[in-house]
Amino acid sequence: MLHLWRKWQERRKLARDDADRLMEEFGPAAYEVAWTMAQDVDSGALLDSRPDGHWDRVRNIIARRTFQPFWRHDDHAP
Question: Residue 76 to residues 60, 62, 67, 70, 71: CA-CA distances in angstroms?
């Protein structure tokens, strides 16, 4: 059980590190880069040594960090 938890923690840290790197390197386009990587790995166009679903996790981390709602309560005040 402890081994599975450690492996999960390692995958989580690797995804966070890759998300940090992509956001630093590509800025606002990081989400699109992670999405493209996920698609390329899934289609077999790109060979990757990362765990299955890694780039989807990276994409989700970037999405959570960069989420900005398109509505604002203070903008719609009467």
Answer: 29, 28, 20, 12, 8
pLDDT tens by residue, 66-75: 887 666 665 5
Task: Confirm whether 74 is domain-assigned.
Answer: no
Stretches in the chain below the pLDDT threshold 70: 69-78
Structure tokens at 32: 């699109």
Instruction: List the domain range (segments joined by +) for residue 49.
Output: 11-66
> In the chain, which residue ranges form alpha helices assigned H by DSSP?
2-26, 30-43, 54-66
* Pair 40, 76: CB distance under 8 Å: no
